Amino acid sequence: MINKEDLSFDQNRIWHPYTSLSNPLPTYPVASADGVRLKLADGKELIDGMSSWWTTIHGYNVPELNQAAKDQLKKMAHVMFGGITHEPAIKLCQKLVKITPEGLEKVFLADSGSVSVEVAMKMAIQYQHAKGQSQKSKFMTIRNGYHGDTTGAMSVCDPEGGMHHLFAEFLPKHFFVDQPQKRFEESYENEELAQLEQFFRLNSDKCAAFILEPVVQGAGGMWFYSPDYLKKIRQLCDAHDILLIADEIATGFGRTGKLFACEHAEVTPDIMCVGKALTGGYMTLAATLTTQHVAETVCNGEAGVFMHGPTFMGNPLACAIANKSLELLFTSNWQDKVSAIEKQLKQELIPLANSLSVKDVRVLGAIGVVEMKGTVDVPKAQKFFVEKGVWIRPFRNLIYIMPPYIIEKGDLHRITTAITNYIV
Q: What's this model's pTM, rounded to 2 decimal places?
């Protein structure tokens, strides 16, 4: 049990994500979690609408994942990956090569999503250096993007409207093009892409790669853009001899209705980052995949090797759980589940677009977003949702949800009803 003294220590001594220790926000102690429910220390149960930030696609306390962890613990929890290999890592990489877009054949296992982005960026730099193009040391990307909180990842997040503008003078400077304006269901006309073509003409000779979140921009604003835009980016990267990096950390493993968001545009990136849902939310693990061509070019360069190697790379326990999580995904009719969630979210959230305080409502796959005209009072909204028995974590002017795929219709209705009651 968490007593008042412990809770006070938490609020005053422990930093939570993006919080202040001089003006701490309320925290809600969780005692256990099962299925789609979080059980608080006071006994109250909350239906989880966040999948613990995109990760728990199978829900909590999953028997199969629990057993996979137990089985692996009997063998080894961790062993260094330098000069050593093991079955869980090999099996996982085999699965990732099989399920990701065709052509992604080489796998680097990373600690977290942010690290996988760092790996992708370093990979692109080493690739260009090996080709004798060391001047290609910058990156191109889209405004309002988000790629993580480590230094390299921060540098390709929006430098003005994003969460990292305070570090602008510290971070490397890259090239940002305006956010695509056509919505997911809309098409681009050729003349509308003239700005993008000009952007490439001006900057591609200095850049190693174009990095983006395919189709769904996540923490930068939860914006869903047209797959036509992604197709055009792929074409321009090829024309200007730079790599395309797809950050699928949030979108991967079915969240948008396709296994990977790149599939909406039928493109294969040169480098792809995956994470979050990879282990079903059980452990931190990510991966960066690339093509045979990129890998060979990197390894035939000056260093002769790829210059990265995290301490916990290829953690056997995480890999074993990820293997079981992927097995569960492919035996769970996930497409039907995500499609049902999307249909219900459209039915129950889209009408909120008529509310005076709402700017826009967006739904794609198992993602629902209500964009407010003003900033959401997070502590007030959080308290309201907890009282309604649901867990939703707004940020800025967004109330958004991405529930576990296993959520039942009645529980999802309770979440959307809570959002409706808060707004109306």
A: 0.97
